[in-house]
Amino acid sequence: MVESEQDIAPAPSTPLAIETRGLRKVYGSGNTEVVAMHDATMKVRNGEVVALLGPSGAGKSTFLTAIGLINPPTSGQIWIGGKLVMDGSEAQVDVRSFRRKHIGFVFQKSNLIDFLNARENVQIAMELNGDRPRVARQRAIELLEELGVGDRADHRISMLSGGQQQRVAVARALANRPSIILADEPTAALDSRLGRQVMELFRRIAHQHGAGVIVVTHDHRTLEVFDTLYEMEDGAIHKHVEGLVQRADGEVA
Ligand SMILES: Nc1ncnc2c1ncn2[C@@H]1O[C@H](COP(=O)(O)OP(=O)(O)OP(=O)(O)O)[C@@H](O)[C@H]1O
């Protein structure tokens, strides 16, 4: 991919890719009740790349899977591309098709299909979305080339290194031109050089393709790649502003 003058953070007036309002999630009930997320509020603009930090058990995966329409919140609202998609635990869209069309996921482990090759793993995401095989095949090859693994397109997943697999996973996440990308510790299995490359890739993708990106990470070595840093603690989200911790709704804590 060629670096371009578009590789800059989005202006404050850029439309929102993601907005969450007062998300709350309660698991279990009675003695086993856990409030995993409360008043979790965040805005991500098109083209913005956001890191979500925080200790184990803070609620990061709960937040990400709520936005990914995998794990509905107990209450609060989720807006994607200006559309209300979750109102409390009630989906406002056809979840499966919305997810396929608009949301790209990258997980800690790549979740690729082992018995397919790299190209087929990317291609299948587009075919499931209704693209013709020839069109899907061509785009899969282009994406793998763009991500620097074009020469591994015909290799089975088990023959690729961890970093190469993660690049294929990113290609698959981009296949249907999602408007948002959600990544849960995508560099946890990578050494620091590859981890950095994958994070920089997210930045380029966000800035050049205009997608809103949230990356859950513990990897403090790569934080300068991000436009905005948030921290989650005990189920609540705070925004980092020049050394201060600011609540996502604007109040300084
Ligand atoms: N399915 C579930 N049932 C009950 N409690 C759950 C469930 N999933 C998560 N929790 C609890 O909710 C809280 C938040 O968990 P979550 O996985 O969202 O945190 P996290 O910040 O992603 O943690 P980590 O960094 O370790 O992945 C934790 O206390 C966890 O034990």
Automatic annotation (TrEMBL):
SMART domains: AAA (SM00382). Residues 18-252 form the ABC transporter domain. Its EC number is 3.6.3.-. It comes from the Bacteria. One of its GO terms (molecular function) is transmembrane transporter activity. The keyword Transmembrane does not apply. Keywords: ATP-binding, Hydrolase, Lipoprotein, Nucleotide-binding, Transport. The keyword Ion transport does not apply. PANTHER family: ABC TRANSPORTER ABCH.1 (PTHR24220:SF86), IMPORT ATP-BINDING PROTEIN (PTHR24220). Belongs to the ABC transporter superfamily. Macrolide exporter (TC 3.A.1.122) family. This is Lipoprotein-releasing system ATP-binding protein LolD.
